[in-house]
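Example with several molecule types.
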Amino acid sequence: MWFTAHPSCRRTRKPGQKVMRRMVTYFVKRTLSMIPVLVGVSLIVFLSMRLAPGDPARQMLGPLAPEENVQEVRRELGLDKPLLVQYWIWCKKAVVGDLGNSLKSGVPALELVSERIGRTFELTIAAFVITLVVALFAGITSAVYQYSTLDNVVTISALFWLSMPVFWLGLMLMTLIAVRIPGLPISGRGGPPWTWAGLTHLLLPALALGLPRAGAFTRITRSSMLNVLLQDYVTTARSKGIRERTVVLKHALRNALIPVLTMVGLQLPWLFGGSVIVETVFAWPGMGRLLIRAVFERDYPLVQATALVYTLIVVLANYMADVSYSLADPRIRLK
Amino acid sequence: MGYKLLSKAFRKNRLAVVGMVIVIAFLVISAFALWISPYDPIEQNYQSLLKPPSLKHFMGTDHYGRDVFSRVVHGARYALLIGFGVVVMEGAIGVLLGVASGYFGGVVDNVIMRFVDTMLAIPAMVLAIVIAGSFGGGLVSLIVTMTIVSWTHFARLMRGEALVEKEKVYVESARAIGASHIRILLIHILPNTVSTAIVFSTLEIPWAILFSASLSFLGVGIKPPTPEWGSIIASGRDCLRSAWWITTFPGLFMMIVVLGFNFLGDGLRDAFDPRLIRKR
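Resulting structure tokens for the full complex:
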């Protein structure tokens, strides 16, 4: 008697190889897809400042400077060249990290931005944590108790927070809360967030930025959770006699989180955009206030640098969200 | 779907009805602002500076002695103008490009959608501040800026709608009898997708109101002394503790209007969604 294995049992290639190759293809594709976006973004940022009325050279020297000097500065800055050539020069410099000097202070624009980038992150991350904690808690509770009074309260108040102007909420928090709690600071930054002063300074701005977004997230979490709770595997889990809490938190929540995570990427531009407003309200020394000041002073290089860095953050964060998301859910990278 | 079925689904939703009442009230206030407001919204009156709310001045007066209530009522006109103006403009551009992108596919779709992706990567508020700041503010500049940053919302939505619609049999039969692309787009696909765009508009108007007020608050939108909600709130910032009414009332008013539009938009969306009707 002799025995040979059935052809399907012979292992000619490791089973993981195909999946690995698909994953690598996905990463390469996703990385390459950032390039057109970055080129487009740089073009939009560049043009939105260059097509604006007003002459940066005149802005630098003031209204009383003689015309020859203005022309000289124009030549120095390359403003006399055609627009496309200017863009090309700007791009070449931008690639090596030179986004020009601030017209007001003469300091490299990127240096000014990088000084403040951490503080904007601090605020945005704190707000985001508030958003997620509130939204997950409220969304899950209202889905589990669907059509109850609690559900109605959560649904209506989610819309209520969503309809709140961020800057007005900030001002109301200042008048209503900060005045009643002595020692709670209402503006500025107190230091690193792990110190008491830093934390207390961070509290109100983060609430003002996070709560309106929590309204939006609560709605997404609720509807996603309701969808999952109707699935067969949840019924199966219940019929096996598993505790309701385990069913909700272990079986349903994991799957309900996928659409919520997708929304995280889409909400980032909102959060960063909102941070500009909140920084202005609470005098938070981040990139947003730098942007507003630069816009008012018509400091073109600084405006371009700030806008570009904001966009880079969002593009990179989205990239990381997509990649980590594909690691978590194989269906996505196989598409 | 029949009109009766729609209106029944809508009326059953109490929040949507509340939303509609708020929106109608907002429209009436904007239309009759001249008659409703007891004082001139811009005229300064140094006899009554920073007066708290009273029977004479419902919402008090600001640091120029102007009646806050009159300013808020007139602000409703600006909010209405901006809300509808922006949505009509962004809708026109977004719907056309979106439907064309979905219908033609291929290169057209690729070019339009890559552009949309690029626009969406830039935080709208940052782009709007840069553009509005360089234009120098004002009503027209604000509407143009907001149209530039928001037409992508419609374009994305309508592309999806057109993708679904173009596969339907009636489009195929129109093509079979020799209808041109333009005819199919304008006579067949557009009317069948327009309800989605209208429902989406009711959710886009509150966004436009909030966004424009934020820009005015930051100082790159409508400038004082024009009674725009964002700039009224900004003007009350300096006397927040002594005169809370200057910031509180306009914000409250704005929030109620935005809430009304959101209730209405949600209700309309549910009413237009046939799956939800069957469930009821």
